[in-house]
Every structure is written in structure tokens, then in C-alpha cells.
Design goal:
The structure holds two protein chains of two kinds. Chain A is of the alpha/beta class. In chain A, the strands form four sheets. In chain A, strands 2-15-16-17-19-18 form a six-stranded mixed beta sheet. Chain A has a six-stranded mixed beta sheet with strand order 14-13-12-11-20-21. In chain A, strands 6-7-8-10-9 form a five-stranded mixed barrel. About 8% of the residues of chain A have low confidence. By secondary structure, chain B is an alpha+beta fold. Chain B is 53% helix and 17% strand. Chain B has 17 helices and nine strands. The longest helix of chain B has 35 residues. The two termini of chain B are 72 Å apart. Classes of the chains: A alpha/beta, B alpha+beta. At the A-B interface, helix 1, strand 1, helix 6, helix 7 and helix 11 of A face helix 2, helix 3, strand 2, strand 3 and helix 5 of B. Strand 1 of chain A pairs parallel with strand 5 of chain B. Chain A: It is an enzyme of class 2 (transferase). Chain A: One of its GO terms (biological process) is DNA repair. Chain A: Its main location: nucleus. Chain A: Its EC number is 2.7.7.7.
Chain lengths: 515, 424
């Protein structure tokens, strides 16, 4: 409870004074992006997707089997010892055994390529189903590898999130129906976690400060900045919907440090980097498209009273450049004071399939000046001040390994399970060691041949997923002492919230903006 | 120090505007925090004179009391089940609210702690719709440039990196356009002169006439479009002059004299070019062509519709003269080997005829095998461009006629894809 009297004499509710106001220097951002998800320039789409599953299984299976061996080696159930079976096809009826493979979910509402082919649909529309999960049941869970496939049954399956593409090991027996009755289930769990500062070095100023703190300067210890990293997603700059335009403005002023008073500004100066996690541009609404068609119709009839000619191909008149202009203004206003990492999202002007490639800087005529120099003799190894990156994206920020996505991977997983526990699913992704298990089944993906980048080789310290309905955060821990900070970043347009992460402790706070 | 009062009185009281602290800061070049204080002071002093004269909005930042959900109708909690909330950690949440002064007290009661509060904007009316404020706030962004933000914003970043390449490229481009526009007037009138000179000496074909009158006709629109950019200026200057020259040339005067007059006029500020007039001819013809080319490039860029019209005229002219084409036996894969041409007609720069080619032919021989044999055959052709010897045919007329042809050929080849789909 705050009353007017209590705050009446704060510094900004006074006559203007002649004091020269302080200038704050923004903390330096220590940043090293990785190009784990960068696709080659000459992309081929001729390949089959099966290789992704094969590579994923090959990469994760040893880890799963290792976990399974320690858990199940020598397990005796009903006088029978569990044995390891190498291939799904080698499972014998009635034999207690365990086997590792890829989960495949067959669900009634799930889009199926076989169905498309049989119905002669050759153009795949974007997936529109809200859920693949059906209340009436009818889904079946299979375990497959390159040899074959077996159907999994058992109560224990309900205790875990399972989606197509995750690698698990199951122990049990095959029953008379040819189904595998699962008694226990294991997955790879968190991969090894790198040390902090394994790729980049703490900034020189940071180390000098620390050493000075050790030496004599006690004052420095107090003013040792607790840096922050700001993460926001779903800015959704729109050409038509202005209902949150004021909040976007306040966000801009907040990040710039123009708003608020000296004390708050000095705090805001420690936000060393802004990460925009997808959907910076709003989904074009249906209203917008009908609006443009009606206007073209009317102008055409007014002009020469003949039927609006259907132009072949792309009609430039239906393009609304306002959203990208607004985003460009937003970025170019912020960039002089803060470096920005920009991940594309589902609505952004980037390729639709995972991994999304960086938004081209040509989209931002003003902010482009801060973008990295395109490859060439002048290109430097330094990341751009405005760094358009891939989605998913991996990098090292303030020494911590960070993995972030624009949210499609999690949204797609949510369609498989009857739960809204998005943090739980994020945790499951980490424990499966796969950041996009449902690619390429229901999440569109590039047909990888040589590498499967969605497999987590190293455990991130911070894993954020953008464009989520609500905020959430959780700290999970692994068997070897790994700990991962999970953050589900809410969509700004819906919640008006941004997330601040303290890079020393990985503690999270959030700021809500209401206008 | 009181300039701000005058500024605010003008904008808020007289012009009914909403003024935000950022706008004030940009307008008066004062630090944002000072601007906030100015707004506060103006609001206080005005309302002391006459209560309700100006209305303020406040920006409040702090932590809200636990349990108070935002009361302004945010009901989007339906999608998330309550037990999900318990899975996430509770984290400190700060709230930044923009509050009209009428609701300030009420909103403040929701706060457990206010770390910062200041006047965000003042306006002549109570702020009901925050969207209006958004417009005012967005207006500031259009004013912003990096240069005038120095010293106004409280946070600076010494590490900021910009790409330098960009700026250098722009500068270079600007320089070249300047050079172009400077050199332009010198060449343009001279070339126009040559064209007019050649005109009377020549039994003028229809197309040539079109070609020569084309530039004057076509060069006019760029003038209308506004000579904002450097290259446009160059064209508008060039375009206005030939028109004048033409008039002069129509009077029965020695062409040389008229040329001299017209070149003297625009070049009077550019001394050396005037003296070299005798040499002007070879140079000018090249100038003519380059101007044509540039004009054509410009036209291709801008008047794609014109192209379509242009294209259609020669085609219509050509059709009646068309040869009855001899039907070749349909043979797979005609392969051109050596060209022995027979030109049957050459009209308006279009050559029609036949040439000898070797064709591959597949036949089935009596044993049922497919045999591929090469057979000499004739293939009819129709080409746009005149072959090199045709140039010498009419010396003086060649330049304009060919230029016209060139232009047409270029336009035809490079026309937009839309011309393919339209009208035919």
C-alpha cells in the first residue's frame, strides 16, 4: 500500500534543477553466438527425412543404454533376468528384456503424410490442428529403430510425456498380442554440461573489477553491477492491431532507460543485452487480408469499372510494410545503447521450417547498420551488434551456455500431450537430449543428412522458449550435478511481460508493463 | 530556464497537444530527467492557477502487493490450469504502470513499494485513451536520430559497433550522381542538335520519327515526377533543353549555327566546353547514345507500362510483311551447326529469312533399329538486330534510327514479366 504522500517528494516530482544529470554506461555484454543451427547456403531438399531419425538414434542411443544398463542390469523379475536386446525386431515373446529406440506416436488427429498421399494432396498446408491428442483416445505409442517397430502398452507410459522422436529405453515383455508391456522406462537424461566461460572469456573490465575488489576497493564491491539479460518474445508489431502499442512504447523507453528516475536508471543500465525470442512481427490477421481485397476491389471498380484483374503471382499491393517498419524503428532506437539478439519465430519473415535461419538484415533498413558485415573480406569474427540468429539458437552469454527457441518446438510438443505443463515439457526435452523431438514428424524441418543438430551435445545452463502463453521458470538438476534454468518467455503482446535474467546467479525476475 | 513554460503553454494550452517527457526533451534538447521535472512543475503551476487546466499521466514503477491481479480486465487466465502455476517458481515481479492522474491514488494502493514515479505526459484533457498517447510517443521516434540523442538519454553504451561499410558506400554513390548531373547538361544539348541536324536530310521513316520524337516526349514525365534525386535532376535538365533546340532547328537556319546557339546558352558557366565546339560531333554522338541508354534504363525502371505500348507498335507494323513460313518436318532436337543465311526481308530493323542448319533426325530403319542421322535443313528466323554491315547503309541516319532500334530491342528483351500476361 503506497499513498501519494509517501512518494510526494521523490526527485522527479520537483522543480527542474540545474544539476547536470548523471550519465550511466551500459554494462558490457559478453557474448559468443554458436552456429550450431546454421544451414548451408546451398540447401538441398531432395533427401529423405529418415536420416534424421537414424542420426538421432545413433547419437542418443549409447547414452540411453548406459542409463539403462546401470538401472536394469541384473534385474530379476519373477525368476527371470532382464536381458538387453539390441534391436526392436529381436524382442522375443515372453522374454523379459529391455530395448532402446525412437518413440513414434500414432494419433487420430495427427497429420499424416501417408494420408495426404492416399488422398492425392500434394501441397502441404501449414499444420492447423490445435491438438493431435484426442480425448476419445485411439492413439498408440510405438517404439521403433532401423529394424522394426513394436507397440508399447502399460500404465507406466502415462507417467511420462512422450512425443514422436524422443529416444527412450523400455524394459518389459512382449505379450501374446505382439505388444510390449512396459514395466519401466528410461531416457538419456541431461548431457554433460560445460563449465562457465568455456568458450568465451570474462571481459577484461569484469576481471579488473573483481581483482580490484579483492585488493582494496570496497566501494567497487557495492557497485559491482549485477548485470541483467532481458528476454522478450512476441512483440508482434502489427499494422492493424494497436491495442498494445503503448506498452511497446513503454518497453522501449524502459529498455532505453529514458523512463523512471535516477536510481532505476542506474539499475536499467545493467541490462547488458536484449534477446528477442521470436514473433517480432504479428501474424497477418484475416481482417487485414479481407480489408485489402475490398479496397483493391473498390479502387478497381472506381478506376475502370471492370472486374479486378487477378494478377499472376505475388500482388505487391496487399503487402503491408508497417509491421517491419515499426520493428525497424524499435530496433534502431534501441541499438545505440543495447546489443540485441534476434531470433525468428513462427510469424517472422524467415523460412518456416526448423531450424529457422536468421531474419535477413535487409528487412531493417535503419537497424541494418548495426548488423554483422556479410561474409566477405571485411567480415569480422565479431558477432553483430544486432545479431539476427537462428531459431533454435545456441550461444554463450556472460559465460553461460544458452539455448533458446522461438517456441515452435514446445508448441508442437504440447499438441501431443494432454497437459499444459510447458515447463515439464521443456525439462523433458532436456532429459531426452533433443531440443526438437517432433521434427521432422509434425514440426517442419530441414532434411538433415550429415548431422542432427537438435540433439543436445552439451547441456545448456539456460534454456528459454519464447512466445509462450504464460511466464514460467524452473531450475532442474541432472545426475552429474548439471543444473539448467528453464524459462518459458511469455508473449509480450498477450501478457506485456518481459523477463530479466541475472547472469551471476541465473535468477529470474520479470517486469510487467501496463498502460 | 522558463523557455519550457512557454513551449508547454503553446503546445498544451494553445495547440491542444499531448506532450510527453521524451518529446519535451527532444524539442528543448534537455535531459529526459529534466524534462520530467519540467512537466511536473508546469502541471503544478498551471493547476495552482486554475485547477483542471492540464492533466497528467504518471509512470509508476515498483512491486505490486501479492495477490493483487491487474484489475483492468485482463482475463486471459483461462488457458492455464491453476495447478500449473505451482510448478513454476515465484519470481520477483516489477510492474511499470502508466496511470492517468485521476486513477493515481487507486493504482498506488496496489503497490507494495514504488521505486520510481514521474510525470509521463501532460495534456489539456484527461487521458482516457492510451492509444492517443501512443501516437504522441511514437511521434518522438520519428524525430530521433543518433546525433541529437547525445546527452539526452541517461544510458549510453561505449561499446556500440556500427557497420562502416554502409556509410562509405552511400557517400560514393552520392558523389557519382553529382558528377553525373554536372556532366549531363554539357552533353545533352549537343546530342539533341545532332539529331535535329540529321532529320531534314533524311527521308524519314515512321519508326525513326517516333524514335526521335520519343525522347522529348518521354523525357517530359520525369520532370513532372519531381526532380528530387540527383539522377532525376539530370534528366529533367536534359529533357527541357532538347525541346527548345527542336524549335530552333525547325526554323530554316544552318544547323551548325543553331547548335552553337543552343550549346552556348547552357554552357555559359562552363567555359572550356564552349571553345571546343568543332570537336563536339563525335563526342556528342556518344553522348547521345549514352543518354539514350540511361534514359532507357530509367524508363525500364519506372515506365513499364510504356514499354508495353512501345512494343506493340512495331509488331503490328511487321505482321503484314511476314513471310509465309515454310513448315519444317517436325524433327527432334534441331542442332545448329553452321549458319548460311539467306535474308529474305529486312524491314524496320527486323531481319527475316532462313538459315541452314543441321538437324538430327531419328528414323527407324528396316530392321527396326532407331538410327539418328544428321540432315541439312532450313530454319526460318526473324531477328531484331541489324547485322553490322547494315550500319554503313545510311551513314547519317544510322545514329538516330539505330538508337531507336536499340532502344526498342532493349525494351523488348528486358520488359517486365507483366507485359507477357497483359492485353495480348
Amino acid at each position: 500500500m503506497v499513498t501519494l504522500d509517501e512518494i510526494a517528494d521523490t526527485s522527479l516530482l520537483q522543480k527542474p534543477s540545474d544539476n547536470q544529470p548523471d550519465l550511466f554506461e551500459r554494462s558490457e555484454s559478453n557474448y559468443k553466438p554458436l552456429d550450431s543451427f546454421t544451414l548451408p547456403k546451398d540447401r538441398q531438399y531432395q533427401q529423405q527425412f529418415a536420416d534424421i531419425y537414424f542420426l538421432r538414434l545413433a547419437k542418443i542411443k549409447p547414452a540411453v543404454e548406459e542409463v539403462a544398463i546401470t538401472a536394469w542390469e541384473g534385474t530379476v523379475l519373477g525368476g527371470e533376468t532382464a536381458t538387453k536386446v539390441d534391436r526392436v525386431l529381436d524382442v522375443r515373446q515372453g522374454q523379459l528384456c529391455w530395448v532402446a529406440g525412437t518413440v513414434y506416436m500414432d494419433m487420430p488427429l495427427k497429420p499424416s503424410v501417408l494420408e495426404d498421399v492416399s488422398k492425392d494432396r500434394w501441397i502441404s498446408a501449414p499444420i492447423t490442428a490445435d491438438r493431435y491428442y484426442s480425448e476419445s483416445g485411439g492413439e498408440s505409442i510405438m517404439l521403433e529403430d532401423d529394424s522394426g517397430r513394436v507397440r508399447l502398452v502399460g500404465k507406466v507410459l502415462r507417467d511420462y510425456f512422450l512425443v514422436t522422436g524422443c529416444i527412450i529405453a523400455v524394459m518389459g515383455t512382449e505379450n501374446a498380442n505382439g505388444e510390449f508391456e512396459v514395466i519401466d522406462l528410461k531416457f538419456a537424461d541431461l548431457p554433460p554440461q560445460p563449465e562457465r566461460w568455456s568458450l568465451s572469456k570474462p571481459s577484461s573490465s569484469g576481471t579488473t573489477k573483481k581483482s580490484r575488489v579483492k585488493d582494496e576497493d570496497v566501494e567497487m564491491a557495492d557497485s559491482q553491477p549485477s548485470k541483467k539479460i532481458a528476454i522478450v518474445s512476441g512483440l508482434e508489431f502489427s499494422g492493424t492491431d494497436t491495442s498494445y502499442a503503448m506498452e511497446l512504447n513503454l518497453l522501449l523507453e524502459f529498455l532505453l532507460g529514458d523512463a523512471l528516475d535516477l536510481a532505476a536508471q542506474s539499475e536499467l543500465a545493467h541490462i547488458s543485452r536484449l534477446i528477442i525470442a521470436g514473433n517480432s512481427i504479428a501474424k497477418p490477421s484475416d481482417h487485414e487480408s479481407t480489408f485489402t481485397t475490398t479496397t483493391t476491389t473498390t479502387t478497381a471498380t472506381a478506376a475502370d469499372s471492370k472486374k479486378p484483374q487477378k494478377k499472376y503471382g505475388y500482388d505487391a499491393s496487399s503487402y503491408n510494410p508497417l509491421p517491419s517498419q515499426l520493428l525497424d524503428t524499435f530496433l534502431s532506437t534501441l541499438l545505440p545503447t543495447i546489443p540485441i539478439t534476434l531470433l525468428p519465430g513462427a510469424f517472422d519473415p524467415a523460412n518456416a521450417s526448423y531450424p529457422q535461419q536468421p531474419i535477413h538484415p535487409a528487412m531493417f533498413p535503419r537497424a541494418r547498420a548495426y548488423a554483422p558485415v556479410p561474409a566477405g573480406p571485411a567480415a569480422s569474427a565479431e558477432p553483430g551488434w544486432l545479431d539476427p540468429v537462428t531459431n533454435p539458437w545456441e550461444g554463450e552469454v556472460e559465460g553461460w551456455r544458452v539455448l533458446g527457441t522461438g517456441g515452435q518446438n514446445l508448441d508442437d510438443m504440447c499438441k501431443y500431450v494432454d497437459s499444459e505443463d510447458r515447463l515439464g515439457m521443456m525439462e523433458a526435452m532436456c532429459r531426452w537430449r533433443c531440443s526438437a523431438p517432433t521434427a521432422p514428424d509434425t514440426l517442419w524441418s530441414y532434411p538433415f543428412q550429415e548431422d542432427e543438430p537438435f540433439v543436445l551435445k552439451e547441456c545448456p545452463h539456460l534454456y528459454f522458449v519464447g512466445c509462450q502463453p504464460t511466464f514460467g521458470t524452473k531450475l532442474i538438476e541432472g545426475p552429474q550435478g548439471q543444473s539448467v534454468r528453464l524459462i518459458s518467455v511469455p508473449s509480450f503482446a498477450a501478457t506485456k511481460e518481459i523477463v530479466l535474467v541475472d547472469p551471476e546467479t541465473l535468477d529470474v525476475s520479470r517486469v510487467k508493463i501496463s498502460a | 530556464m522558463d523557455t519550457y513554460k512557454r513551449f508547454l503553454a503553446e503546445n498544451v494550452l494553445t495547440e491542444d497537444k499531448v506532450v510527453t517527457y521524451r518529446f519535451l526533451s527532444r524539442a528543448l534538447q534537455v535531459h529526459v530527467n529534466t524534462a520530467k521535472q519540467m512537466l511536473y512543475e508546469f502541471h503544478r503551476s498551471q493547476n495552482a492557477k486554475r485547477p483542471g487546466a492540464v492533466h497528467a499521466t504518471y509512470l509508476v514503477y515498483g512491486t505490486k502487493r501479492a495477490g493483487t491481479r491487474s484489475t483492468d480486465g485482463d482475463i486471459d487466465m483461462s488457458s492455464s490450469a491453476p495447478e500449473v502455476e505451482s510448478l513454476t517458481e515465484d519470481v520477483p515481479t516489477s510492474t511499470l504502470s502508466l496511470v492517468p492522474e485521476e486513477r493515481l491514488k487507486e493504482i498506488l494502493t496496489d503497490y507494495a513499494e514504488v521505486t520510481s514515479i514521474h510525470v509521463y505526459s501532460i495534456g489539456p484533457h484527461p487521458a482516457k485513451d492510451m492509444a492517443l498517447l501512443a501516437d504522441a510517443a511514437h511521434h518522438v521516434l520519428t524525430l530521433d536520430t543518433v546525433a541529437d540523442q547525445k546527452g539526452l538519454a541517461p544510458i549510453i553504451n561505449p561499446n556500440v559497433r556500427r557497420r562502416e561499410r554502409q556509410g562509405a558506400g552511400l557517400k560514393a554513390a552520392a558523389a557519382t550522381t553529382q558528377v553525373k548531373s554536372a556532366s549531363k547538361p554539357a552533353q545533352a544539348p549537343a546530342s539533341a542538335k545532332v539529331k535535329e541536324e540529321s532529320k531534314p536530310a533524311q527521308p524519314v521513316q515512321e519508326t525513326v520519327d517516333k524514335g526521335s520524337s520519343g525522347p522529348t516526349k518521354k523525357a517530359a514525365p520525369p520532370l513532372k515526377r519531381g526532380a528530387s534525386s540527383g539522377i532525376m535532376q539530370a534528366f529533367s535538365k536534359a529533357a527541357s533543353k532538347p525541346a527548345k533546340v527542336k524549335k530552333e532547328a525547325e526554323a530554316p537556319q544552318p544547323a551548325q549555327a543553331s547548335g552553337k546557339d543552343s550549346t552556348m546558352q547552357p554552357l555559359s558557366d562552363d567555359g572550356e566546353d564552349d571553345e571546343e565546339l568543332p570537336q563536339a560531333k563525335p563526342r556528342s554522338s556518344s553522348g547521345f547514345r549514352s543518354r539514350k541508354e540511361r534514359e532507357e534504363a530509367l524508363r525500364r525502371m519506372m515506365d513499364e507500362d510504356d514499354d508495353i505500348d512501345e512494343d506493340e507498335t512495331p509488331e503490328k507494323e511487321d505482321t503484314p510483311e511476314e513471310e509465309p513460313m515454310e513448315e519444317e518436318p517436325a524433327a527432334p532436337e534441331p542442332v545448329k551447326e553452321e549458319e548460311t543465311e539467306v535474308v529474305t526481308a529486312s524491314t524496320n530493323g527486323r531481319r527475316r529469312g532462313k538459315r541452314r542448319v543441321m538437324r538430327k533426325k531419328q528414323i527407324m530403319d528396316d530392321q527396326g533399329y532407331l538410327v539418328t542421322i544428321q540432315e541439312p535443313g532450313w530454319e526460318s528466323f526473324s531477328e531484331d538486330e541489324a547485322p553490322p554491315p547494315a550500319k554503313s547503309k545510311a551513314m547519317s541516319s544510322a545514329a538516330p534510327a539505330q538508337a531507336a532500334k536499340l532502344k526498342k530491342g532493349g525494351a523488348k528483351g528486358q520488359g517486365s514479366i507483366m507485359s507477357f500476361f497483359s492485353k495480348k
